[in-house]
Write a structure and sequence with these properties.
Bound molecules: flavin mononucleotide
Structural class: alpha/beta
Number of strands: 7
Largest sheet: 7 strands, mixed
Order of helices and strands: HEHEHEEHEHEE
Number of helices: 5
CATH topology: Rossmann fold
CATH architecture: 3-Layer(aba) Sandwich
Oligomer: single chain
Distance between the termini: 31 Å
Shape: globular
Number of domains: 1
Radius of gyration: 15 Å
Strand content: 15-25%
């Protein structure tokens, strides 16, 4: 379930950069990626926290701030009180993803290889989504952020990727991995 402002942002973008971050590393990397990608390729690129898929209004407000932080995307009002425009949505999370875009995910691992708090609801909804009858045309890239000092290295990004693959989404390029333990984030 996403709010109407986020839905509009997604519609207006050619590339949508989502992130799930506990302490800000993925968020920073996603912001940098968004800016560099947009200036290098001239594609309208939006940045959105995955917490837009959670029911927590405070989280959704953060996400709208992210979306509005992109100058090219600032042509809509910052409607922080926007309500969710889909009631009783069935669990088909992919219905939020028009297939004429590229989706980029920056996913940090936390706990024992778990999703960060802001990405958790999205991940749960992905898991509950049933395999579509026709192959999805959704294209995406994924960058995992973690530390090889932890037993379940990159597990959250690996799990997220598994779900996207299960639903027939097409991975573009290779699965990127940034390792905090080796200073590569
Ligand atoms: C309490 C804690 C648990 C973590 N658990 C994992 C883990 O299970 N797997 C992993 O690859 N990295 C793990 N990390 C490393 C983080 O993913 C890494 O520091 C990352 O840069 C944090 O990104 P964020 O700031 O976007 O949340 C953990 C870090 C902390 C502080």
């Amino acid at each position: 379930m996403i709010d109407s402002v986020t839905r509009q942002k997604i519609t207006q973008c050619q590339v949508v950069v989502f992130y799930g971050s506990q302490t800000g590393t993925s968020k920073k990397l996603a912001q940098r990626f968004q800016k560099e990608f947009e200036s290098s390729y001239g594609l309208k690129t939006g940045l959105i926290n995955l917490n837009v898929f959670s029911n927590d209004n405070d989280n959704a407000n953060d996400a709208n701030d992210d979306a509005n932080a992109n100058a090219d995307m600032s042509d809509t009002e910052n409607d922080k009180n926007s309500h969710c425009d889909i009631q009783n949505e069935t669990l088909d999370i992919l219905s939020n993803f028009p297939d004429d875009k590229i989706y980029v995910f920056f996913i940090s691992s936390y706990g024992d290889g778990e999703q960060t708090d802001d990405a958790l609801q999205f991940y749960k909804d992905l898991k509950l989504t049933t395999v579509p009858t026709t192959k999805s045309n959704i294209r995406y890239c994924i960058f995992g952020i973690g530390s090889s000092l932890y037993e379940f290295y990159q597990e959250a990004a690996i799990d997220m990727n598994k779900e996207l693959q299960r639903l027939g989404c097409e991975l573009i390029g290779t699965f990127g991995k940034g390792d905090d333990g080796k200073g590569s984030t």
